[in-house]
Each structure stands twice: as C-alpha cells, then as structure tokens.
Amino acid sequence: MEAAMRIPARKSFFRDWICTVDHKKIGIMYGVTALFFFLVGGLFALGVRTELWTPYGRFVDSQTYNEFYTMHATVMVFLVIIPLLTGAFGNYLVPLQVGARDMAFPRMNALSYWLYLVSGLTLMIGMFFGMPDAGWTSYPPYSIQSQGPGIDIWVMTVHLAGLASILGSINFIVTIIKMRAPGMTFNRMPLFTWSMFVTAFMQLFATPALAGAVTTLLLDRHFGTVFYTAAQGGDPMLYQHLFWFYSHPAVYIMILPGFGIISEVLPVFARKPIFGYHAIAYSSVAIGFLGFFVWAHHMFVAGMAMSAGIPFMISSLIIAVPTSVKIFNWLATIWGGAVEYEVPMMFASLGFIGSFIIGGFSGVIVANVPLDMALHDTYFVVAHIHYVLFGGSVMTIMAGIFFWFPKVTGRMFHKTWGYVGFWFYFVGTQVTFFPMHLLGLAGMPRRYATYAPEFHLWNQVATIGSYILGVGTIILLVNLMVSAKYGRKVENNPWNARTLEWTVSSPPPEHNFDEIPVVTENPYQPYPDLEPETESAPAGA
Amino acid sequence: MPNVASWLPPALTQMAQRVDSLFYIVLGIVAAFFVIVEVLLITFLIRYRRTRKNRTGKGVHGNNLFEIIWTLVPTVILVFMGVISVKYVYAQQTPPPHPVVIKVTGHMWYWEFQYPNGLDTRNVLDVPAGQPVLFDITSADVIHGFYIPAVRVQQDALPGRQTQFWMQADTKDIGQSFPVPCDQFCGVDHSKMHATMTVLSPSDFQQWEASQLQKQKASSGS
C-alpha cells in the first residue's frame, strides 16, 4: 500500500514529457512549441515589412517575398494561434475548470500534440526544399501551377494540423459533456470552458471542408484530376467555397477562446462577478452558429453575382451583434469595479478591447457589399484581419499567458518587464496596423512586393511598428522564460480568482484534484466587502 | 498626384461618389461606436481603479434591460446598414442600356483590352467620358483582380468564367489617367501587373480607337 502511494523522486525527461498523457503537460508542450513557431512566423513578418520599407522591394526578390508572406500567415494561423488557444489553453484549463482529472481521451490528446508537432516540422524542414508561394489561401489555378514542392508541403502541413484539430475537438466535446464535476451544470461552467465548447464544435464541422479543399488541390497537382481546371470542366471558385467554409469559422476558432480568456480575466481584476454571464455564454453559441453562414463574404468579387452577396452581407453584419453584446458586458464588468492594473488586466482591457474593436468595426465596413467592391484585396483587409488576430487573438493570448503563468509554474513573472512588454505591444499594434487602413483606402492592393511611391510613407510607418512588435515579443518571451526558472514563488491563488483551477496547488498535482469538487454555483460570485484601508497595508492582506 | 496617398482617391464616376457617401455613413456610425466604447473603457478603468477606499467591486451579476438594449440597438443599426446598401448593389450590378463593351483578359502579367472595333491593347485602357462602359472580364491563366480604385469597383478575372462591371466616367475628368492594378495574387510579378486608364472625350475615343486599329493592322501586316 505504501509503495503504491510513493511518487518516484525524478522521472526521466523521456518518461516525464515524451510519454506523457497528462493534459497539463500536453498543454505546456503545445504552448512552448507554438511560442517557438510564433517567433518563426514573426521573423517572416519582419521579412515582409523589411521588403516594404522601400517601394522598389530591394530586400528580397518578388518570389521570396511571396514565400515570406505565405509562410507568415500559414505559420501564424495553423501553427500558432489555433494551437495556442485550443491546444495550450484548452488542454491545460478545460479539465481543471470542469473539475476532471484529465481529458476524456488522454492518449488521443497526446496524439493531437504529436501530429501538430509533425505538422509544424513538416513546414519547417520542408522550407529548405521549397516554400509555398500562393498565399495562405492557396487559390487554384495558381497553386496548381506553382512549381517545386512548396505547395505539397503546405498541403501536408494543413492536413496534419487539421487532423490534430479534429481529434482535439472531439476530445473537448466529450470532456465537457461527460466529465464535469458533480453540480457543474452547463450554466455553472466557467466562460473559458464555454468558449472552448463552441470552438470545438466549429473545428469539428469546419475542418473537413478544408481537408477536402487541399486534398483535391493535391490531386489536381499530381494525379491529373481537373477539379479546379476550367478548360476541362472544373471550377476554381469551388475551392474558394470549400476553403472559406473552413476559414471563416476558423477566424472565430481563433478568437472565441480568446473571448473566453477575457471573460475570466476581467472579473478577477475588477473584483466583481462577470456582468451578464448567460449573455456572454450564449453569444458564443450564436457566433458559433452564425459563423457557418458568412463564408461567401470573402468572395463578393470572386465571380458570384453581386446581388448573391446580399444574404452574406446581412449575416455578416448580424454576426457583429453577439460580439458587441460581449463587448458591452465586458465594459459593464469593469464598471463599478475595483480595477487592479496587473499585466494580464492591461492586455485584456486596453490591449484587447481597445484594439480589437477597431478590427470589429472595419469588419462591419468590409461586410458591406458595395464597400467591399472598393476595398477587397487591398491593405484595408490586411489592416482588418491584423486588428482581429493581433489586436484581438494575440492580446488575449498574452493576457491568458500572464494570468495563468503563476498557476502553471508556481512562480510570478517579472511585473515591470511585463508592463514594458505590454506597452511595446499596444503601441506597436497601432503603429503597424493602423496605417494599413489608410493604404487600403488609397487603393494599395495586398500581396505586393513593390508599390507606387505615394504609398511609401505609411508603409515605412508600418515597418517601424513591426520592429516595435518584434522587440516587444522578445521582451515578453524572455520574461516568461527567465521567470519560469527564477521568478518569485507564489501561493496557489495570487490573483484571488474563483474558477476551480485556482483551488489546487500551483503547479497543480498530476491528478488535479485530491477529491473531485462538488460545485454549487457558477464561479463569478461577488467578492466579500472589504473595509476601506486606513493604513498602507498591501491590497488583499 | 499627391505624394502621400492616405485616403480615398478622387472619385471618377457618380457611382463612385455614391459609394463614397455610403462609406462615410457607415464610417460615421462605426466611428461613433468606437468613440463610445473607448471613452467608456478608459473612463471605467480610471474611475473604478483599486484604491484604499475602493477595494471591492459591486456585487452585480447583470441586468436584463441593459442586455436587451445592447442587443437590439446594434441589431437595428446593422440591419439598417445592410438594407441601405442593397440598392447600391443592384445599381452596380445593372449596366445602363447600350454600353461600350470592352473585353478584359488577365494574363501573367499584363491586362489585355479588346475594344468594340477589334482593337487589342496591352495595359492601355482608354474609355470615353459620359458613356456607359461595360467590362467583360476573364482570365487566360490564373485568377487576377481587375480593380479601378478611382471607380471603387473590382471583379476577379477567372479562367472559364466571365465577370462584369460597368462605369461611366465624368466628363470633368477628360484627359486624366488612373491606375488599374491587379489585386488578386497571380504569381511572381503580381505587383507589376498594372494598366493605366485614360478618360477621353467620345470623339477622341472614336478617333483613338480607329487610328490605333490602323497601326495595329499595319504592324501585324508587315
């Protein structure tokens, strides 16, 4: 009996990490791997911006430039944002938040990670044999004609990442439906778990469309099929329908878990219950549902009749409603609070809400058919998606990393450097991406290696901004790495948060809970009233 | 042409001016909401910061009336935006009768224009002012994007499919030239695929079309 209770003093790295099926370790591995790819994707972005420092494109040739932005977007979408939000945050947090000992299928969970890693390595190693050059959308017929193995490597990468996504989403759905602790009804579930629940369904239903699109692309490239060859009866637009049937929901896959993170961070630092728990939870469901009815807004100018865009315009405008419901509820959460300006709160409030809404509003503009006729495929769209994915997703990722860092490591990050990193990110985001709106309005098309001289100024400003973001990334990641080893040790719940993961030790034990908790209410309950302090005692003492 | 382009270029057609006014209406609405959200965010962050006196937030869980208001108001505004845009879509989709039809073909990496009299040019797009012009757009190879920023319209040029849009240049712009870039990625020289559109008076256009055709015939005959 005693022997069974004894924990081995130290496992080998191989036993401890490579063979692990522990959702927390898998989450950490997802996180570390994705942050490595974040640096790679960022370097490609800096390559793109450096090329655009002059109108003549003297840094690299046009072919290399096309490869750079293709790699940038492919890495960021498939290897960074989706794996970080679902793989890292989802895996680490969902079992803890629902009061389970692990995911429903721990071995399949490990398989998801390893497929994801192989997918990333395929792209990284493939890079030395040929980079894809057709953009992350990889539209045929260009992507069929593109020479070299680049597109084939891209297809393999997407397939493997997609398979990892599908397996992961099944795991989340089963875990959330079947493994909630006693008393954890759906209406008591933490909002991050709610957002993961919806995200998992979106991944499950959308990813197969992408798999179909890229498989047929591969067949057209090598096996003589003519799915997308117009001269032989194929249709290049079919690919776009399949691609966007995945990739528009994918935009919500890349932001919904982030919304969940924000809904966890704001009430903790405002010392309030979340405002409108049900509205926030159900608006995620609405986004997940409506997200499947807007895909053709990417194709208003792609060959459909202009009037065929009208229903997609209306659905795209309406999907802004559940998002704005969230924004107002978050503002109302801050209202009447006692806001503590900790680093995660800075990312969540000013960083995320302050920047993301610009992406939301520019989305309303390009959802409009006549305006999209003018602005489609210009830098306005580039500005829009970067405000959504950087001002949105990346800000939520940073908010989440700094929020749960003490839980995962048992240590506190360096706060001053955290603030410095935040300001680099906040300022860098605006300086990089805001001028792109102006370039787009003036008519600068996207995916241009060279451009007319009148676009020079704002391109230079954006390039300066991208370097600010580069420095900010180094500051933030070095802080995390150093603090994980040398940071001050902290107690189990340094932020005084309420969800279940904060009730266990930091880092949590391998089995999560000594005793499965019994849940009686949702985690967003009022904080006990504290008497106003008379002396300068530390807050929360 | 100004040295720094940072806003909408001059609008060449009446339709473009109408699209611009739609843009300003939509921009006005979203800008107002942008200001409201940012002001509330920053005000709340400062007003309700943690102090020695303010150590705990209010124990409020929500308010159904507010939820209904901030669901319905954006819904009404967004649907309004959609509805007012519909008539622009149909106006843009329906060309006036008897337009001058110019066939546009995208190639890697140039634009080919075929005029009604049989004239065939590369990257040279001349249009008559004051007359409706209809572009029949297709591609000889990969997908290109036929985009005239001054007209505020674009359509992709696809192989095996014909897309269309029409325009009618204002007579005040006679003699002016406008860029016609390709805006759908089409390969290594995508950013160099660029035509120039010049607005001519109808009589100059006729003359130009005829004389160019003569030259073309002469050069192909020799």
TrEMBL record, chain A:
UniProt source species: Alicyclobacillus cycloheptanicus
Gene3D superfamilies attached to this UniProt entry: Cytochrome c oxidase-like, subunit I domain
Role noted for this protein: Cytochrome c oxidase is the component of the respiratory chain that catalyzes the reduction of oxygen to water. Subunits 1-3 form the functional core of the enzyme complex. CO I is the catalytic subunit of the enzyme. Electrons originating in cytochrome c are transferred via the copper A center of subunit 2 and heme A of subunit 1 to the bimetallic center formed by heme A3 and copper B.
PANTHER family, per database record: CYTOCHROME C OXIDASE SUBUNIT 1
Similarity comment: Belongs to the heme-copper respiratory oxidase family.
Protein name per UniProt: Cytochrome c oxidase subunit 1
Membrane spanning stretches: 28-48, 68-93, 113-131, 151-177, 189-211, 243-262, 274-296, 308-331, 343-365, 385-405, 417-437, 457-482
Catalytic activity: 4 Fe(II)-[cytochrome c] + O2 + 8 H(+)(in) = 4 Fe(III)-[cytochrome c] + 2 H2O + 4 H(+)(out)
UniProtKB/TrEMBL annotation, chain B:
EC top class named in words: translocase
Cofactor section: Cu cation
Source taxonomy: Bacteria, Bacillati, Bacillota, Bacilli, Bacillales
Keywords carried by this UniProt record: Copper, Electron transport, Membrane, Metal-binding, Respiratory chain, Translocase, Transmembrane, Transmembrane helix, Transport
Record keyword Chloroplast present: no
A Pfam short name: COX2_TM
Chief localization: membrane
Similarity-based family: Belongs to the cytochrome c oxidase subunit 2 family.
Cell compartment(s), UniProt: Cell membrane; Membrane
Protein name: Cytochrome c oxidase subunit 2
EC number assigned by the record: 7.1.1.9
UniProt cross-references to InterPro entries, sorted A to Z: CcO_II (IPR045187), CcO_II-like_C (IPR002429), Copper_CuA (IPR001505), Cupredoxin (IPR008972), Cyt_c_oxidase_su2 (IPR014222), Cyt_c_oxidase_su2_TM_dom (IPR011759), Cyt_c_oxidase_su2_TM_sf (IPR036257)
Organism this protein belongs to: Alicyclobacillus cycloheptanicus
Top-level taxonomic group: Bacteria
Keyword Protease attributed: no
Location of the Cytochrome oxidase subunit II copper A binding domain: 97-211
Transmembrane segments: 22-47, 68-90
Main function: Subunits I and II form the functional core of the enzyme complex. Electrons originating in cytochrome c are transferred via heme a and Cu(A) to the binuclear center formed by heme a3 and Cu(B).
Reactions the enzyme catalyzes: 4 Fe(II)-[cytochrome c] + O2 + 8 H(+)(in) = 4 Fe(III)-[cytochrome c] + 2 H2O + 4 H(+)(out)
